[in-house]
Amino acid sequence: MSSYKTLFLLLCLPSMLHAMSFEEARHLLQRSGFGGTAVQIELLVGVTHESAVEQLVAAADTAILLTPPEWVDTPPPDRRYLRALNSAEKKALRKQWRQRGIALQAWWMRQMLTSESPLAERMVLFWHNHFTSSMKKVKWIPLIFRQHETVRRHALGNFRDLLQAMARDPAMLRYLDGAVNRRKNPNENFARELLELFTLGEGYYTEVDIKAAARAFTGWSIDRRSGKFRYFSRWHDDGEKLFLGRRGRFDGDDILRILLDHPRTAITITDKLWREFISPVPDPYEIKRLAKLFRESDYQLRPLLKALFNTDQFRAVENRGSLIKSPVELLIGTLHQLEISVESGRLLALASRRLGQDLFNPPNVKGWPGGEYWINADTLLQRRWMMQRLTAEDSPKRNKITSSMAYATLSEWERLLLPFPSFSAPLQSDNPYQGLSALLTEPGYQLK
Q1: How far apart are CA 187 and CA 183, in angstroms?
Q2: pTM flag (> 0.90)
């Protein structure tokens, strides 16, 4: 049963609490997923916000619905085989890797469009941008898929488990050079990003801590034959280390435990989730309160999400339309709200790339910054053009708009699609597609 149907069956109960309006229900579905259709929003009208959040989070399911490409379990090629290839064969192999990369992107785009748990897909996307890896450096695409599986498995579970799994992830070990981290020549790349981006944040560690962490993770590598995590004890530095004021013969697991004990880790993750779901400027008091809840639950993510969605700031009118949609949110959200089915995920993946979000290929280890990063002179024109194409007379997608609002008035479309009333003069048109096109190209439609 879909999460939306579950909401309808479980939430239509009498309550003394405040019942949501159409606009409030729209905001909840927009921020927690990819937006709702008119029917999905109406199902929540009259339901309390607290009840809707409770069931929305509880029903979120990260299960894979679509069969992934058949090659995702292929082990990496033997190095001797790669060295024996001639230039033409190497060129053909690189082409195959690129094609498989696009195929994996297309698969994920279709998974997001098909899923009945948009919150789950949003959280998978969130963690993909937190624990970044790039196909361009990892190269062996099945490792990227395995990392995606790991992220998906823990996306709504426990951050402690996710962090421990990602520290052992082969794609991550390749991307941040952990696979070549040796006792005699420690590589600091993973240790630096672990502290700066994945847990504490800048300003809460020193170079001494980075060096100690790098030594602790020596020996964490990849088995050449299987492509899976493998620990090599002969490469590990088991000497005494000083890390965040503690002294001991630490290994990688010890470093992770110390980081999870540090209060800054919960604050870092809570702050980032706030910027993802509520507003660009977090409330310091609320961040501390929510981070405390996060730590006390031993880093369980569902309780934190429920608390985030139930904050006054999440529900505040002034925060509606305060965030810019990512390319994925714009594309998947538009197709979902207009109820347009798409068979080719490849076209969506390539469109997202043109708009600046190349899935599995973030710009650097910090991922996509979001916000105003998404909008520049080129991408804004591309966004408008893509929205116009959906309702153009010669567009094959125009007649696939199967929404129950296909013959709705322009004001009803505006209420569904925009986070606040249009800034433009009211459009008068007898052509529903012309009016819809005008709303899809409104500046406000780029916001959530």
Answers
A1: 9
A2: yes
